[in-house]
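Project outcomes to date are best conveyed with an example. Our students and postdoctoral researchers have been running inverse folding experiments weekly, and each run begins with a structure described purely in tokens. The record below, which covers 303 residues, was selected by the lab manager from last quarter's runs and is presented without edits.
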């Protein structure tokens, strides 16, 4: 994070207005119907950005329209949290035109994952804002009820967030403490070398991805290692790698990369593109503990 205090958004309450934006790929109304009903039935008042259903070739409308929707949601006094409709591709294109000063003046909850990783990391690094890696509107009706309950708790309650990974695999034992950062592995690699990529020194790095064959994953791990991004971490949390081929080969890559590095490394964590997608705040100090099989935050993440 750039110099300055970490900015924590106000907690969400039942009855609050929540905004839906499409900063990346296009989405159809039918794809969001169930997710919107899910939000409304949980007591939130849903406000759609004007260009949510805009469509270009592979983007949800032109860049200025997507950017305007995002800025408007941060400015609106009615909106207390912003949910991204879906991922896909396109968030990266907005980073050099985002008004980070506006975000700092009007901090709000922003939730998303996958391609939205670009926004989450940039708003943390350039704006100092705590952001939230978690399900998008298109996912809300398909995730497990426990993931939705957990998401509501993370956004509405200022208690420590504890994530348990009892079904995960410990590749390297230990305890690590540091800011919780990360998201989609492909986006993390594409952010490297830009002004929107925060330092990972001393961080607990969480990664997930989908549809990447073994050689591409190997290339990304190699990229991160050769860029010096793996050597000073406090811990590594590997989430779900869905449709990514042979998982035994993937674990072999991880064992090769982190052999003898002396930090805790766990895999199979319930985050990412599967039905278990537990939300967590980015930028908050956290502890990864392989003895207790937990990842937990160590400070409040909301006001």
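After processing, the design step wrote out the following sequence:
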């Amino acid at each position: 994070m750039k110099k300055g205090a970490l900015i924590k958004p106000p907690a969400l309450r039942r009855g609050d207005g929540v905004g839906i934006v499409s900063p990346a790929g296009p989405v159809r109304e039918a794809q969001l119907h169930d997710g919107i009903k899910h939000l409304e039935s949980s007591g939130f008042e849903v406000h759609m950005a004007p260009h949510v259903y805009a469509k270009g070739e592979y983007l949800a409308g032109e860049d200025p329209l997507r950017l305007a929707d995002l800025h408007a949601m941060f400015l609106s006094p009615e909106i207390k949290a912003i949910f991204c409709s879906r991922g896909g591709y396109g968030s990266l294109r907005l980073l050099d035109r985002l008004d980070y000063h506006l975000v700092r003046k009007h901090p709000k909850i922003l939730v998303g994952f996958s391609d939205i990783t670009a926004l989450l990391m940039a708003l943390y690094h350039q704006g100092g804002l705590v952001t939230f890696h978690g399900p998008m509107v298109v996912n809300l009706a398909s995730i497990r009820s426990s993931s939705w309950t957990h998401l509501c708790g993370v956004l509405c309650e200022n208690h420590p967030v504890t994530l348990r990974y009892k079904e995960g695999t410990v590749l390297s034992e230990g305890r690590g403490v540091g800011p919780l950062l990360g998201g989609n592995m492909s986006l993390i690699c594409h952010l490297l070398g830009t002004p929107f990529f925060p330092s990972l020194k001393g961080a607990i790095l969480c990664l997930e991805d989908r549809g990447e064959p073994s050689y591409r994953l190997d290339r990304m791990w190699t990229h991160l290692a050769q860029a010096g991004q793996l050597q000073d971490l406090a811990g590594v949390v590997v989430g779900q790698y869905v449709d990514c081929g042979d998982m035994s080969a993937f674990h072999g890559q991880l064992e090769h990369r982190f052999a003898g590095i002396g930090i805790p490394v766990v895999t199979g964590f319930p985050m990412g593109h599967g039905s278990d997608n537990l939300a967590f705040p980015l930028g908050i100090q956290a502890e990864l503990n392989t003895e207790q099989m937990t990842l937990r935050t160590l400070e409040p993440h909301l006001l």
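The chain is about 30% helix and 25% strand. The radius of gyration is 18 Å. The training component of this project remains on track.
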